[in-house]
Amino acid sequence: MDEFEKGRKFTRVLWSKYLGYLSKGVGKVAAAKAVGVNHQCILNHVNDDPNLKKEMDEAISLSWDAVENALFKNATQRNSFASQSFFLCNKKPDEWKDRRQVNTVNIIPSEVNNSNKFIDETLERRLDADNKPNPEPPSNQQS
After folding, report:
1. Is residue 66 part of a domain?
2. Which three-class secondary structure state does DSSP give residue 111?
3. Which of 60, 62, 126, 129 is the right S-S partner for 23, CB 3.0 to 4.6 Å?
4. Domain count, the chain
5. Contact residues for 23 (Cβ-Cβ < 8 A; gap 6+)
6. pLDDT by residue (tens digit) across 33-85?
7. Is the predicted pLDDT of residue 107 greater than 60, yes or no?
8. Is the residue at 47 inside a domain?
9. pLDDT tier, 139 (very low <50, low <70, confident <90, very high otherwise)
10. CA distances from 24 to 55, 56, 85, 108, 117 (A)
């Protein structure tokens, strides 16, 4: 029994199974439960041994690679615009930015007041025009 297994039920075999689950995209807590080990026990080992942390990170990275490969396949072989856009915006952010960002406009209070004044004047002219008597229509009488 090596230091890894000393005094614990967490063995190299269980560690390998745990890494296998992580590489398939299973979360850390669920992977620990699947191999029958308390998640805190795994954290204790990982915190004590930087090599275990590295192995764990590599396993998690494998699951990300699988998703990245599927995204790339969807973007190229299935010609999915959403996948293409997502892939490019994340892989080449300086060249491909999400253009859906909302631009805010800074309004100066004096501009708002001027706009309100214009609206008020326009309404007054229309009301005045409505209140003027209508001219009498020309008569159709012939002399």
Report:
1. yes
2. helix
3. 62
4. 1
5. 59, 60, 62, 63
6. 999 999 999 999 999 999 999 999 999 999 999 888 999 998 899 888 888 88
7. no
8. yes
9. low
10. 14, 12, 25, 55, 65
Residue 64 CA to residue 119 CA, distance in Å, equals: 57
Instruction: Output 53 or 98, whichever has higher pLDDT.
Output: 53
Give domain status of residue 16, yes or no: yes
- The 3-state DSSP class for residue 98 equals coil
The DSSP code sequence of 16-29 is HHHHHHHHTT--HH
- Position 131 pLDDT exceeds 80: no
Domain holding 77, by residue range, is 12-91
Helix axes 81-91, 50-76, angle to 10 degrees: 140
Determine, yes or no, domain membership for 141: no
- What is the share, in percent, of the chain residues with pLDDT greater than 70? 70
